[in-house]
Amino acid sequence: MLKVTLPEMRQGAWKIDHFTVTGKEFQGFSSRTVPPGTYTRLTRGGTLVMSDTPDEMRDHLPIVQHATGSVLLNGLGLGMVLKNILENSNMIHVTDVTVIEIDRDLIGLVGPYYSLRDKRVSVICADALTYKPPKGKRYNAVWHDIWDDICTTNLDQMKYLHRKYGSKADWQGSWCRGLCEQQLKKEQKMFGGWY
N or C: which end of the chain has fewer CB within 10 A? Predict the structure, then answer.
């Protein structure tokens, strides 16, 4: 996967900046680490939302591998998934990519770098949970990534979105669903099924 190439900038509560890791650092969930290098991150109100670190890029590899034809992305973030789908489209045939993003400031910050440069991209300001695709629209691939953190509380929304697009998509996935399900099993085991 390719790292993003966005400049440092901010809009509203959102900020994109670059950071350098000189030694292996721990980041967030479980045993995820960041090797030395320079990366781009997206924060909202000072809280990390996403980055283009190797673990996070690996998290999104399934959609890049499955993207073909008509693609729907729930969540814009840094546009890392969008960039990789568009840049790999010489190997795969992507006809159109619809991005559903709830935050206007984030659309204003990141959206133009992709939608103005590629006519296949449409960015729609809407809530992924309530957005209704055009009647009769079918997607070859759908990716859900509307969460800031990897946590078990995301699973209900993931299940809802997968049901919602079950008859409208040939393939779909959610960011870190497998990790969330593993964590839920650990929590259930720890609390004896009363969780």
Answer: C
Angle at 60 between CA 80 and CA 7, to 5 degrees: 15
CA distance 3 to 39: 8
How many CB atoms sit inside 10 A of residue 194's CB?
6
All domains in the chain, ordered by first residue: 9-52 (no CATH), 58-180 (3.40.50.150)
pTM for the complete prediction?
0.90
Q: How far is CA 77 from CA 43, 49, 124, 132, 162, in A?
A: 10, 8, 13, 21, 20
pLDDT in tens, the chain (195 residues): 899 999 999 999 999 999 999 876 655 545 678 889 999 999 999 999 999 999 999 999 999 999 999 999 999 999 999 999 998 865 678 999 999 999 999 999 999 999 989 999 999 999 999 999 999 999 999 999 999 988 899 999 999 999 999 999 999 999 999 888 888 888 888 876 554
Backbone phi, psi, residue 157, to 5°: -70, -35
